[in-house]
Amino acid sequence: MAEEAIKLGGKRKSIFMDKVKELLPEGGNLNLCLTCGACSSGCPATGLEGMDPRKFLRMAALGMDDEIMSTPWTWMCTMCQRCIYVCPMKIDIPQLVFNARATWPREKRPKGILGSCDMALRNESRSAMGTSPEDFDFVVGDVLEEYQESQPEFAEMEAPIDKQGAEFFLNQNSREPVTEPDEMVPLWKILHLAGVNWTYGSKGWGGENYCMFLADNDAWETLTRTTINQADALGCETYLNTE
Amino acid sequence: MHCPVTAVNQYNLNLDDRRAAYIEYPQAVPLAFAIDTDTCIGCGLCENMCIAKAVDYADKERETKVQVGSVILSSGSQGFDPSGLDFLGYGKYPNVVTSEEYERILSASGPYFGHLMRPLDREEPKSVAWLQCVGSRDANRSGNGYCSSVCCMYAIKEAMISKEHAHSELDCAIFNMDMRTFGKDYEKYYNRARYKDGVRFVKARVHTITEVPETGDLTVKYTDETGAMQEEIFSMVVLSVGLKIPETSVELAKRLGIELNQYNFVETDPLRPVESSRPGVYTCGVFQGPKDIPGSITEASAAACLAGADIAEARGKDIEKVEVPEEVDVAGQEPRIGVFVCNCGINIGGIVDVPDVQEYSGTLPYVVFTDSNLFTCSQDTQDKIKEMIIEHQLNRLVVASCSPKTHEPMFMETLEACGINKYLFEMANIRNQNSWIHSNNPDIATAKAKELVRMAVARAATLRPLNEKVVYINKRALVIGGGIAGMNASLGLARQGFNVVMVEKEAELGGFSRKLHHTIEGKDIQAYLKALISDVTAEDKIRVLTEAQIVGFEGFKGSFATQVLVNGEREKIEHGIIIVATGGDEYKPKEFLYGEDARVMTQVELTDRLEEKGAGDLSTVVMVQCVGSRNEENENCSRICCQSAIKNALHIKKLNPDAQVFVLYRDIRSYGMLEDYYTEARRQGVIFIRFDKDAPPEVESGSDGVVVTVKDHILQQNVEITADILTLSAGMTAADTDDLSGVMKLNRNPEGFFIEAHVKLRPVDMPSDGIFLCGAAHGPKLISESIAQAQAAAARAVTFLAKEAIRLSAITAKVDVDHCVKCLTCVRSCPFDVPTFNEEEKVIEINEAICHGCGVCAGVCPRQAIQLSFYEDDQLIAKIDALLEAA
Question: CB-CB: which of B660, B683, B690 is closest to A9?
Answer without folding.
Answer: B660
